[in-house]
Amino acid sequence: MSLRPTLETRRAQPTLEGAGVKLHRAFGFQDPSELDPFLLFDDFRNERPEDFEKGFPWHPHRGIETITYVLSGTVDHADSLGNTGALGAGDVQWMTAGRGILHQEMPQGNPQGQMHGFQLWGNLPSAQKMTAPRYQDVTAADIPEVTDDDGTTVRVITGEFWGKKGPVDGIAADPQYLDVTMPPGVRKTFRIDTYRRAFAYIFEGQAAFVDASAPSGVLLEKEVAGQEVNIRDLSGDRTLIRFGSGDKITVQAGEQGVRFLLISGAPINEPVAWHGPIVMNTQEELMQAMRELRNGTFIKPAH
Ligand code: MN
């Protein structure tokens, strides 16, 4: 087993998106190879309705998957496949845009006026960019939760973990999407298969990620597997941690414990041509999508 180094830690940045929704972006619209197969991660936790209620009115997607995970409040949604409904606390919407979908996502918040959730974009390989659009709505009750002896709890949204399998299936990038809660002071090692690209996103509490790569600005400690390792001090809330190659990570929870997403997937390793909500391989494919949006042929009529 080899420990994955922490290549980078950074705070999510304030960003305005949709019709005027305040959110924090951990990554996106920069170097798409960095976290391939993932393109973007937004944290849309807000405490005031005026910061989210304008929402994300009708817009297109092609060539990607968008994954919405709601922690608190509800999101009303509708799309060109005819799906409509509301996502509630703990629910996941996994939308495979494929060759094209139009949808809208309108956050409604909870009775206290808060709205908490995340959106992740996963890329599709060229062979599946023009696949039929697909929509998987997963309610909180269908997401398995597993608790270990030390009190660590993991919600398994996709992929397999500790013998549980998440309910979302058929995804090209073979993602593993985990919501991990660790009690104060617990230290734990998580296996992540070598072929995966991986990141963590801390959204409550604090943690340190044990790092064998000896970066600067870390605390020294001599106790993991008999080797001298470094523990990177982390600031906690809204922090992205990008891991290098290896097959495990070790997390040390802080005094208040920690809650984070641990997300990994198989890199696609293809050229990326990206314009707003449309992500293809070439500029020509992007221009084709724009032409279809203009002339009204972007969405294939239902048969
Ligand atoms: Mn969207």
From TrEMBL:
InterPro entries: Pirin, Pirin_C_dom, Pirin_N_dom, RmlC-like_jellyroll, RmlC_Cupin_sf. CDD domains: cupin_pirin_C, cupin_pirin_N. It comes from Pseudosulfitobacter koreensis. Residues 21-121 form the Pirin N-terminal domain. Gene3D superfamilies: Jelly Rolls. The lineage of its organism: Bacteria, Pseudomonadati, Pseudomonadota, Alphaproteobacteria, Rhodobacterales. Signal peptide: none annotated. Belongs to the pirin family. This is Pirin family protein. It holds the Pfam family Pirin_C. Residues 177-298 form the Pirin C-terminal domain. It comes from the Bacteria.
